[in-house]
Design a protein that fits this description.
Elements lengths: L2 H9 L50 H8 L10 E7 L1 H9 L15 H10 L4 E7 L7 E9 L4 H10 L5 E4 L3 E4 L2
Antiparallel strand pairs: 1-2, 2-3, 3-5, 4-5
Helix pairs in contact: 3-4
């Protein structure tokens, strides 16, 4: 089953959602910086979970994917490049364009779809991860952490439950959950 038409029909939107804000050039790091203002909530946030496919077929247009996550060709080492400051709108776009498998998970992490839904509920939270280049057999986009520069009681409670399987979790002055 093809995910893109399912997501587009479930949300009533085209593959590229014009309501999604473009990526900011000034990306704060995951180490406690305050993220930029949240993007407008994507329509995909209201969609039902996509059907799980036996084999996910990635969109292999890395020249389009990499700018979406803020990666340049010089950022790759050994065919892998890290990214951070991915907001809910950008993750929605990666899902809609099939650059990330909604059922992928980094070891004990929640699935990408579950992380996306968490970002929908908490638009100040950002995701970080890595992309694998086309010249490798394991081409993909993976999410391995979430973070927020500021945290309130509601986010703290939700993150404590959501990040229960995280390798490292901080929910004091800021949020940081990392799944290795």
């Amino acid at each position: 089953m093809i995910l893109l038409p399912l997501l587009a029909s479930a949300t009533g939107c085209a593959a590229a959602d014009p309501a999604v804000a473009p990526r900011a050039d000034t990306a704060p790091s995951a180490a406690g910086a305050t993220p930029s203002a949240p993007a407008e909530r994507p329509r995909l946030c209201g969609a039902p979970p996509p059907a799980e496919a036996d084999e996910f077929r990635f969109n292999r247009d890395a020249a389009r994917r990499d700018p979406l996550v803020g990666v340049t060709p010089a950022g790759y080492t050994g065919g892998i490049a890290s990214f951070d400051d991915l907001d809910v709108g950008e993750l929605a776009e990666l899902l809609e364009l099939r650059f990330v498998d909604p059922y992928d998970r980094q070891n004990a992490a929640p699935t990408v779809w579950e992380i996306f839904r968490f970002l929908c509920a908490h638009p100040d939270v950002r995701a970080a991860g890595y992309v694998v280049s086309l010249d490798r057999e394991d081409y993909r986009t993976s999410i391995e952490s979430i973070y927020a520069g500021r945290i309130d009681a509601a986010l703290s409670a939700d993150a404590t439950a959501f990040c229960a399987t995280a390798e490292a979790i901080t929910v004091e002055n800021h949020l940081e959950c990392f799944w290795d």
